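Appendix B, example 12.
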Amino acid sequence: MSELIGQPLVKIHKLLPLSFSHVRKAPRDAPFNAVVEFSGRAYEVSYEMTTNSSGEKLVACVGYDVTDRLETERKLVEQQTKIAFEAWEKTQALRTIFSKINQGIVLIDRELRVKGDASEIFKDLVNQRSVEFQPILDLLFQYMNWSTHTLNQTMEILAGSIGEDIMAFKLNAALLPTAVLFTNDGHKLDLELDWQPIVDDQDIIDTMMIVVKDVTEANRLKEENRKAKAQVARVSQILELSAQGAQDFLVHARILIDRIDAAMPAGAGAEPERPGQAAIGYNLHTLKGNARTAGLTELAEAAQLAEDVIFPMISQQPTEDLPALALTRAQAVARVLAMKESLGAYQSTFEQLSNFSPTLQSAQHAASPEAGSADLDQQLPYWQRLARKTAEDLQRLPPNIDYQSTPGMMISTAAAAALNNAFMHFIGNSIDHGSPSGGPGATITIVASGSLDGGVTLLYRDSGEGLPIDRLRQAAVRRSALHESQVSNLDAAAMIFTDGVSTAAQVTQISGRGAGMASARSFLQEIGGRVSIQLADKENQYGKFNFALIIEIPPACVVKLAANPHRDNIWSSHRS
């Protein structure tokens, strides 16, 4: 621009096609500044009007190339405009969210007070229009069904997270409740809570956002859907059974649950007596196995959940920790109630189906646990089903059942129920102990015959590895003042009928709690029967002793024997 210096202003205009994009106004006689474009570049030009010695007016012109600077300024202005527009958009969006979102949103500051506004849904939830600066404890938390421990823990986590590195929150976030029951002004709502920390550029939590979602209606619909699916499953499971089999199961399951309920400890006093504890264990373990065998999975699962709480409770030593004991008892009572409700649902389903089925209707009216008789041979299909279901649950091959009997023996329905309860445990143990996973299925032999006194005797044995007599002998020593040398092999073997004694290496759904064989003996004793053990004289190849069980049904429970009922007669044979 040196060629412009000293040139008259008019000449400058002739030399340059000046395009003024910006003119800074100045007081009279002040320098005249402008930004001009010349040859694709931008220049900031200062014009200074001067007069030479001849009185001629001249212009002194100084120019600077400001193209890059102006481009930078333009980009900054554009970015600033963009940021301002985005902020405006976010503000509008936030206002829209707060006014229309179906979730409640509230922000919490370091003092655990509401920061700024909250969504309209949240305001409606807490029934307040002005929530800013209010303590979140008074506004929201006090209306939730939290225990004192949960409330204190939540407040401590929030207080220890806001204002701290986000890592502190991540370490404790799993302890924050996410599902609560909210009660305010008599209204009860199911709420889901989502805790979302808002951090600064240093990863320090500045604010905690709580997203509150009302899932009451969704939960109601889910529950209705669950009940509908459960009803469909119950119908299918009942129809899988024979009419009489379904009704017999329901009648005897009610007896077992009533026994469990009656033996449950009440209040916060002492533990139930040992017989009461045993009754709970025997009946619960048997109910679970029978429900699993019948294919009534809802009841089987309810019984399993009850067993998970009740067995540890009745096996513990007396404790003085009354709050913990009361909590465990409350859980146990709730689980028993769930079993009763499940059985009631099956019974209701059976009755509804009976309205459409004469066969089910006749079975319903004919059922009685005290009266009637049952063909002993007709119990075999139940034992076969039991074996198949148990093997399936344990992922084992089903056993081969070799059943031999004198035809025509009839026993009371009470004896049949007791025998089936006992066999549920016998067969379960045979498969769990005698059929290694992946190996060949067990072989179970059952021989039934009339006894000389008018009763019925059954011999039961399997092809399992046998009994670990040394381990059972040690159990006998622990439970008595005897020395090992004073415990015979037979006495040690009889320990399998003792409550709490098990030969299983670990607890499974089938065995390991030391309840099965004791339960079986208990059910047989209730009808006046008994079970004993026959033991081989020497160890087998596994270092254990083969054995057989002798089950005796008393004459009082026998309705009819065959003309020639005794063991030396011709046998009918059934194999499966």
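The first strand starts at residue 22 and ends at 24. The chain has four domains: 2-65, 101-214, 228-366, 373-575.
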